[in-house]
Amino acid sequence: MSTSELSNALNPYANQPRPRPEIAAYSTEPVPVAQQQHHYVPHRSELELAVSEPLATAPVVIRPKQPTSGSVQAVQELLRIVAVTRESQEIERKRRLAWEQEQEAKFTQRQAEMERQMFELRQEISKLRSASLHPASTSGLLTPQYSNSPALAVQRPPQLASPVSPISHSSSYSHPMFLQGSSTQPIQSHLAPHDQQQQQFEQSTPVVEPTFPSVTPAPSPHLSYAHSSQPHETLASSANLRKRPSSQLTSDEEEGGNSSDSSLSNHGRPIRRRSGHDKRCLTIHHALRAHILRLMGLETDKNLPDSHKEGVPIGPHDPVRFVWDKTAKQSAHNFRMKARVLADIKSHRKQYKHVPDKDFGKKTLDTAFDQTFVTFRQKFKAQRDIVFAEANKRREDAKAQKARHLSRRKTKLSNRAEARMKNPQFEHVIFDGALQLECMSSDESDFGDEVGSSIRSSGILRTRGCLWRSKRLVTFFGILDDEERTEASSKPKRGGKRERLSGPPKDGFHLPPEGVASWMISRRWVKASHARFPDFPDTLMRLVQDPPGFDWDHFDFLGEESEDSADESQTYNNHGLQQNSVVHHTSTSSLNFALI
Fold first, then answer.
1. Are 222 and 161 in contact (CB under 8 A)?
2. For 296, which of 17, 167, 246, 567 is 20 to 30 Å away at the CA?
3. Inter-axis angle of helices 193-204 and 69-138, to 10 degrees?
4. Where are the alpha helices (DSSP H) in 243-303?
5. Interior angle at CA 134, CA 128 and CA 139, nearest 5
6. By C-alpha distance, which of 391, 381, 390, 365 is closest to 322?
7. 442, 387, 383: which is closest to 595 by C-alpha?
8. CB neighbour list of residue 52: distance below 8 Å, 6 or more residues apart
9. Does residue 436 contact residue 466 with C-beta atoms inside 8 Å?
10. Where are the domains of the chain?
C-alpha cells in the first residue's frame, strides 16, 4: 500500500518506527558504482500539486484601431470647410478695408472740391457786391475828364454832369466807371500800388452805401464826346479782339506755332491747318510756289509776266523769269532758273519750318519743282489764251464735280455702315458685299440744263442708281436709310439733308463690283446683258461670291425674289430714258432715298 504525505499526516501511526531486517555483510568490498549525476529537480508534493496555481495569462497587446475611409473623408471635408471659411473671411476683410479707404478718399476729395467752390463763390460774390455798390449809384451821372498828358499819369476825379443827386467822394481811389454804349466791363483807372491794396481790402470787407435813384441828366458836351468817340473805339477794339485778322500772322505767333507744330511733327503727327485762313507752308509744293513768286517779284499768280526770250541773260540779282513755252528740260534758260530756285530755297529753308527736312532732298525737290512749273505754265496759258482758259475751267469743274459726287457717296456709305451695325438682323457676312463704294448711287446737282434751271437753283439732288441692283438690295438700302434718318431726327438739326428725286439710271454699261452676292443682282438685268454679251455669265461668275450658311426661306425682311424685281429705273432704259417725265419725290420716301 502506497503512502503519501497526506495519508501520513492523517494517520497517527505513520511515524512509528518499524523493525527492519538485518542485511548480511559481504566479505568482499563493494565496488563503487559510478552513478550518473542528476540535475536538481525541485520536488513537487501532492499538496502543492493539489493547490491549483493560477494560469499564466499572456500579456494583452492593444493594437491601434485602424480608422475607416469614411471618417478620414469627413475630417478632410471639415478641414477644407474651415480653410475656405477662413480665406473668405480674410478676403472680405481686405475688401471692406479697401472700400473704407476708397470712401474716405472720395469724401476727402469731395470736401476739398466743395471748399474750393465755396472759396471761388465767395470771391465772385465779393467782386459782384463791390461792383454793384460803387458803379451802380454813379452810372450815367459821372463824366470822366482826362488830362492832356500822353501817359495819363494824373487823372481827375469824376465830376457830376448834372447836380441831381450829390454823391460824396470819400474813398481815396477812383471807382471803375461805366460809359453809355460801352461794354459791360468797367474802365479801370490807373491805380497806384497802395490804392490797389486798399481796393482789395475794401473788396474783402464790403461797405454798405446808400443807393440813389437812377436819374438821366441833361446832355452835356462832355457826355457827347464820351458817347461819340469812346463807344466806337470800344466796339472796334472788342471786334478786333473777337475777330482775328486772317491776312497775316505776327512773327511771335508764327514762331510759337512753328515750335508747337515742329514738336508735333517730331512725334510723327501730321500738321494740319488751323482754319481756311491759315497760310502757312506745310508742304514742299506750297513752299516752292511761294518761293518762286518771291524770286519773280510777285505777290500772287493772278498776273504772270510774259515769257522770257531764250538766250537773253539774267543777272544774279534780277527777278527770275521763265520761258513758258518750254519745260525745264527743253530750255537751257529754264534749267538755270530751276537750279537758282532750288539753291535759294535750300539756303532759306529756315523760313519753312513746317516742311519736313526730308522733303529738301535733291530728288524730292526736282520732282516738286517740275510739278509746280507745270501748274505755272497752265496758269500762264489760261491768262493769255481764252480757249485754253475755257478748257482748263471745264477740266477744273469736272474735277470738282467728281470730287463732290465721290464725297457724297462716301458719306452715304459711312451712314449706312453705321446703321447696319445697329441692326442685328443684318450682321451676317452675306450683307458685307452690299456696303461697297461702287454699290452706292450718285447724287447729282448739275442737271439744270437738262430738266430746268429751277430744280438746280432749288438745291434738289437727283439720284441715279445702277441697273444691276436688285429689288432686295434697294430695299436693304431703304431700311438702312430709314434707320439713319430716324436717329438723325432725334439730334439737333444742322442744315439737314437736301431733297432727292429719283432720276434715270447711270449712263453706260456698269458691272457690279467684286465681292457682291447673287441676291444683289437683278435677274432681268442678267438676262438683258447675256443677250448682248455671250460671255457675260463667265465674267459675272468671277465677281459674285455667295457665303454659305444663310437661309433666305426664313428671312423675309427684304421681300421675295422674282423675275420682275429689277430696279424701277429699268423702265427708263426700256422707254428711251424719257427725262422730261421725271416725277419729283420728296426725301420722305425710303424707296426713293434708297436709290442713292
1. yes
2. 246
3. 120
4. 251-266, 284-295
5. 105
6. 381
7. 442
8. none
9. no
10. 281-384, 391-594
